[in-house]
Amino acid sequence: MSIPLPGRPRCLAALALITGLLLTAHTGTARAEPDAPATSAPAPADSFFTPPSPLPAGKPGDVIRSRPVAFHPLPLVPSSAKAWQVLYLSTSATGERISVSGTILVPLARYAGPRPIVAYAIGTHGMGDQCAPSRGLTIGTDYEGFAVAAALQRGWAVAVTDYEGLGTPGDHTYLVGHSAAHAVLDSVRAAQRLAPAKLPAAGPVGIQGYSQGGASAAWAAQLKDDYAPELDVRGVAAGGVPADMAGIAAGADGGPFTGMLLMASVGFDTAYSELDLNRYLNAQGRAMVNSIRYECLLPPGPAFLAAAFHRLSEYTTANPLNNPLWRARLMENSLGGTSPDVPVLLTHAGADEVVPLGQAKALYDTYCAAGANVSWRTLNPAEHAIGLIIGVPPVQDWLERVLEGRPAASDCRSAAGAGEQPGGDEFVRAEMEHRVPVAVAALALAGGTYPAGLHSGPSTIWPLPSVTRTTLLATGAASGWPGLPHISPRSIFTANVPSCSRAGVMLPSCHTTDTATTSSVVIPNWMLVPSRKFQAST
């Protein structure tokens, strides 16, 4: 069966549901001993991804080689887009010429005018070559395949980089912003120069990414003027952004995602040889690192699982983060030092348990203070993985507008910033149209039940029997709204906006005026219907 790309919202909702199941499958990891067996091994070699030595002459973005492949948004389900795996020239964080692999995808449907290219920057996939999106997109196992398919549905070409060392020989430079930005920008150049893709050499460009990809997208926005000034980048959408590297490292240590801290340690050590990670590792640390460098996030490998709830000190003889060389490189790869000169949309899950919301808001404030055109969107109710899924439709609506040349209204005029709906009424209407069915599919997971029928406004738009919701959301009514703990969802419904409901349905256009505390929240039924700005009691 082939899925035609235009006009298949139910298909995308199904893809989002499967993505949600995959992304939440690793939660609840139990603590394991730090010396748990680490048995991961390198992926089988594919000569396509091995670059010639020496590298051929050429400019960043030049295609070394390419081959046609099939894009599968789901296993055994091909799409109607043309796709090519590519190996292209790029630049490392320290300015050396390198090769990077990736995938270029082009819809079959004609496009009126120059076809835009969207560089889709992937989130955390892992460290092993088998984790690279150029592998997973061809067999339907990449968890961000639904987002790529959604972009193709809009008629855009999509360039998906594997980043440095993910797919190609050597370790992946995980979370090294300069390396990632170069790979993202050069993937657009590669798409423009890939002859069989027949894409315009100077058409409009958008950049989208979440989590690791959000940082990569933001870094591309910051470095674009110096590194790729010829690209007509109309807008950058960066979600779940890990902006402050030192803060992220400190927050991850000892938590469920210590494995990501180990991955980042390997990534920085790979990018900057003077850091010399190995001299800080004890025997357990060397075993963990030697396994985690070959592992994927989904399904998580043995070292990633074993590292959960352990501290970095259990794997080291001295903390490398106390070394001035390490601190300097972390600072160098923390966002905010340069103001982007293209419109930027920052999104973040209100209950993000992986990437702290506060440091992303600090990036927003920094960009605004520097005069950048920035919009902000808090995704509620959502933790990190759900933020990826429910953010795709409104983010791509925003990208569609800027790619068409329509202005992007900045939120920086608002002192609150994070309380504003970017793009005004048009953004809300677009979100109402696209977000709800995808969010329903994504959140139909384990624990709790919703009433029959999901509503947006006065009528039911997604008839549904009894579906389930995540444990995180099930605790909302008792403990307060995720990200807004002082607000009780039930009190919003019964006390604050009694005139704004009909047959038990919250209407999205209602406003309350009984307090001065204004928060932009997403209120479902009970927890999925996007709402306008509400004033809530404290």
UniProtKB/TrEMBL annotation:
The keyword Signal applies. Gene3D superfamilies: 1.10.260.130, alpha/beta hydrolase. Keywords: Signal. Residues 1-32 form the signal peptide. Residues 32-59 are annotated as: Disordered. Coiled coil: none annotated. InterPro entries: AB_hydrolase_fold, Lipase_secreted. Residues 32-47 have a biased composition (Low complexity). Pfam families: LIP. It comes from the Bacteria. The keyword Ligase does not apply. PANTHER family: LIPASE 5 (PTHR34853:SF1), PTHR34853. This is Secretory lipase. It comes from Lentzea pudingi.
